[in-house]
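Sample entry was shown:

___
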Amino acid sequence: MSKQQAAIVSAGFCEHASKRSDVNMAEMANEAIQDCLNNANIEMDAVDAIVMGNMPAFEGANLPELWMTDWVGARDKPLIRVTTGGTTGGSVAIAGYYHVAAGLPGIETVLAVAFEQQSCGNTSVGLSSVALGEISIVNALGLPAESAMRIFGAGAAIGIASYQAINYMKRSGCTEEDLARVVVQNRRNAAKNWWTHLKMPDYTIEQVMATPYVSYPLRFGMVTPASDGACAVLFTREEIAKDTVDIPAYVNGVSSVANETGIVGYAAAGAGQLDPCEQLGAVESAKLAYSQAGISFPEKEIDYAEVYSPFPNQELMWLERLGLFKENTAHLRYRDGTTAPNGELPVNCSGGVNSTNAIGASGLERVAEAALQIMGKAENQVPKTVHTSIGHGWGGCINFVTLTVLSDQPRRK
């Protein structure tokens, strides 16, 4: 067994919407798989193993890998399911990569598929399982009621994001209009992709600002949707990749880092309480993945970025933590057009998670779109040649981060 250079040769999607009532979960995942295979012009017989992932608690349907076996093409093939919160899709991508890179006998081409059909269940109820675990810790530690209230006062995802937004605005000088500008760019980008959820080609900053606050400073018009959808990505070894596609997207670096629990921390402690924007997991994941890929100056060497940002302040924050812009300057790059599709560093030409959020699939979609930009096959393809791109994932309790670095050339150690 020897390490192999792995590459992405295809990606596929299904149509995303708030409710895909026309299909069940297995059929929805199969749509993305068929799109992926068709784009590569290969049959399921050429796939040696399957990696799949979602958040079963969100739909209330457990062990999908057992009852979806035939629909994901896994009959008589190795299969593994991955679940890591919001980073599930990013973890699925990394698992697919390692299946190929490990050089396992008989495993040369691997299909990674991630999905979520949130309309079948209740995501908030699913998230309560995390709170229940924290309650047991509170009781075991004998913490006072005041500490318990601080732990459970985050207000779910929007609450955490609003803490981050206030902190970022104070330190950077970013305004609410700057946050709205990020949203407008994402929704307009989404309109250029057939599979995305919120397509708003004429959305304006004024329209965003006219919507009510959900949790200051985040308004209703800035909030990520709850989407049904699926994504599939095909990984294979270098020799097969060269025969399958003109420009493979070589996987040259991957990382998965989790720092201390953030907002929901023991005794309400942790970096999330002191600085919600610190995000050490992102900083450390970038260092690790960039070192693997031989990247020393990410702000100069990376041509395209797909970052996992349900809320606009997070998009600004991630771009800085991943080393693409200097601290407290990301919002200025949206003002001057740097991050637009025709800009110096295009960001989220897919529309990002702010436009489409089938949670289990969202991390994989970042990797898929980053790969398609290199391959020249993205729906909203940027005009410049993309040599190196990144796909980022975020989840857990604001402390899980995944990162995949892709290039049009393999990394030679």
